[in-house]
């Protein structure tokens, strides 16, 4: 394997020749890209955060609810980078659904939050249909998470 990482001309090399050093040897950029989390992995994390967000808001722990809305936003921004084909839908989803949910958390407004949460969930499931995953219909679990304090904080 040709060691190319320290050459100043790396930007001129074909993509499949570019490598980066790791503790156990060189990896090509293509190999590194393959190791990034895919849509399923990112969405599984989105689902976890979305569930906990709802119950944090219902418990009145608005800082925690806002934290989970921001986690969803951050995960979806990462998804936009690794899967650009979703970037338009994700940007619209952020503006039309994530921003209002976050605003409701900031205002500690239960009714507005519940409406924003339901509208966002409906839109997410519509997007699953659009992207040929109609069998993925997210629903809020009946049970609150047991690993977090959900009641309002002083
Ligand atoms: C709060 C909003 C959302 C929730 C709770 C949610 C939830 C989920 C869940 C639980 C999965 C299955 C993950 C797994 O494999 O375990 C999934 C998959 C998926 N979601 Fe979402 N989602 C949301 C928003 C979106 C948005 C905005 C898009 C926009 C494109 C999207 C596109 C997809 C796609 C394409 C898959 C299939 C994954 C694959 O191809 O492997 N989702 N979603």
Task: Lay out the secondary structure.
Layout: E1 19-22, E2 25-28, H1 29-35, H2 39-59, H3 62-82, H4 87-107, H5 110-130
Antiparallel strand pairs: 1-2
Helix pairs in contact: 2-3, 3-4, 4-5
Protoporphyrin IX containing FE is lined by residues 39-40, 43-44, 46-47, 50, 72, 86, 89-90, 93, 120, 124, 127-128, 131, 133, 136, 138.
Given helix and strand content, the structural type is mainly alpha
Bound molecules: protoporphyrin IX containing FE
Number of strands: 2
Write down the overall mean pLDDT.
Answer: 92
**Gyration radius over CA:** 20 Å
Give the termini separation: 59 Å
Descriptive report:
It is a single chain. By secondary structure, this protein is mainly alpha-helical. It has a domain at 39-130: Four Helix Bundle (Hemerythrin (Met), subunit A). The chain contains 5 helices and 2 strands, in the order ββααααα. A two-stranded antiparallel sheet has the order 1-2. A hairpin with a 2-residue loop joins β1 (19-22) and β2 (25-28). α2 (39-59) packs antiparallel against α3 and α3 packs antiparallel against α4 (87-107). The longest helix has 21 residues, at 39-59. The protein starts with 18 loop residues before the first strand and ends in a 24-residue tail after the last helix. 19% of the residues are buried. The protein binds protoporphyrin IX containing FE. Protoporphyrin IX containing FE binds at residues 39-40, 43-44, 46-47, 50, 72, 86, 89-90, 93, 120, 124, 127-128, 131, 133, 136, 138.
Which features characterize this protein?
154 residues; mainly alpha; Four Helix Bundle (Hemerythrin (Met), subunit A); two-stranded antiparallel sheet; 2 strands; binds protoporphyrin IX containing FE
